Fold Sulfatase.
Amino acid sequence: MTFSFFKNLLAVLFIPLLLIGTDLGFRLPILSELDSNKWGVYLVSIAFSALIYLLILFSLITSKANDRKKLNLFLVILFSLFYTLTVVGSYGYFHYTGIMPNFFVFSFMFQEPYNSWTLFLAGLNAKAILGFIFLFSLCVYFLRQVSLLQKPKYLVATASVAGSLILLLSLFFHNNTKFQDQLYVADTNTIVFFNQNLYNAVTGDRLGSAGLQSRNEPGLAPIQRKEKPNVLLIVSESLRRKSMNLYGYQKDTTPFLSSWVKKPKDGKVTVFENAFSNASSTLISVPSILSGISPDQNIAMTHNFPLFWEYGKTLGHSTFFISSHSFRWNNFDGFFKNSGIDYLWNKETSGNPTFNDIGIDDRFTVSEFKKHVLKLKEEGSSFAGVLHFNTNHFPYFIPEGSEHFPVGQDLNAPYDNSVRHLDALMKDVILFLENERLTGHTIILFTSDHGEMIFEHGYIGHIESNHIETVSIPMMVYLPKEYQSWTNHLNQNKSKNVANIDLIPTITDLMGISKEPEIANYLNRLPGTSLLTPVQEDRTIFIANNNETSLYRVGLSFIKSDLHYILRLNSVPTKEELFRFRNDPEEKTNLWEGLADDEKKQIRGLLQDCILCRDLYSSANIYL
């Protein structure tokens, strides 16, 4: 065998060796724990990768043999870029997050290319650029060598068979990927998820994310009440408790809120110390806040139960939802269409350009809120409304000149600046209400849809994690002086575990309508507790991003006393974790492996009555 033979063999095998070698290098401990079914899927992904590579080889050899030099050079560069980006992107993501890029990572790139580009640029450094150039150069060199090989005798027949097998395997992946999204080598993973998102974009299908549907308006009957205070629900996006000075963070991120809760004008504020979201996905958490429905309940309830302002309409309140967000995202506009709301304002209706993520500059939203409330005041109308911010969502863009913490070595600075900017927005809102003498008869509730990870547990964002940073949220309630008798009731729960699903029972209690038979019929089927009544110390707060609306394959978790249990479905193998978050606020010590089998069964048994939980467990071959 000659040197030329080994050179050609290396040229042909370089890409397969790169893919398999890198995958084994990063994921060998994981692969060693796969069962036979998962090994089967993994090997099918390798077969798919080999077939794709075979067609690439044929295209390079054919273009060179037919003396199409420009086409050949173009294909060499194109395929080299594909494999380099695939390997660097997939295993770079795995290195930081512990999971391979899945449907929702590629969906994020499709839906939010600007944010994706921002995140990509943030990860660039000299080492990464040099590594990319080196790997790309190797791919170009070896694929160029492949082009010089002789044209195979049975090229057309072999290519036809390979193409047919690729189509068959593509159908297999299309129907099964959402159940096995961590078992592919890098190029198969990239092709499969790119194809699924492209399929969604072309067909309008929602494979991977069901989205919200149009609602049925409950049509609650009017209620006569002499006292009907205004109710304002303020919802922030991706605001985590951990980064707020109000909750003990060392940086001064909330100067206004920290002072306001101590000496509010015309009333008192109760700050809940241990509040949690029921999902780290906006798609579940916002409807949950507005309806009181938990993600483990039947999705039909979300589309049929009253929303916050529909309770307000029973008292004759003028209602509004003023939001910085795009409502075209996951059909929020269709969901709110039949909600009987008087005034709906969002990114699309505002006509303002995108500023951060898929939302507009929150200063426009505050301005619209002021204008609308002044109009209601002039008309003599009471109101029940929602003010919905966007500032704290990745990539945490804030107006120029608003930076307070220097951005550079401090990875938390961009997010901390967004929290500081939100504090300024809240100051604008509260001082406006005070100046207009509205705080004397306006109840204000403030919360966030979920939290955010800032590189804790190797992750940035919120969708793919149920760790404490993504589910711990701020929550506070302001009551005017005339309702001070309720403050003591709220204060008895300030240190207990509370959740966003408690807001609707609390609001209807504050409105004085919770005992009305028609409304009580709905409230009795909600899992939340009015914060005006004693909250159980050992309650279980369920958290998930998986249901019929949101198919993010993350898993589930629950909070009970000082325990936080997490089932991770987005890891291979499936991982269970248990933390005592009050003594271990960073969740660094996983207690699960130290438990006896009967103790593990006892903890899982707390979810025995949850149908969704049984489905998620069975998909991981764990049975309650």
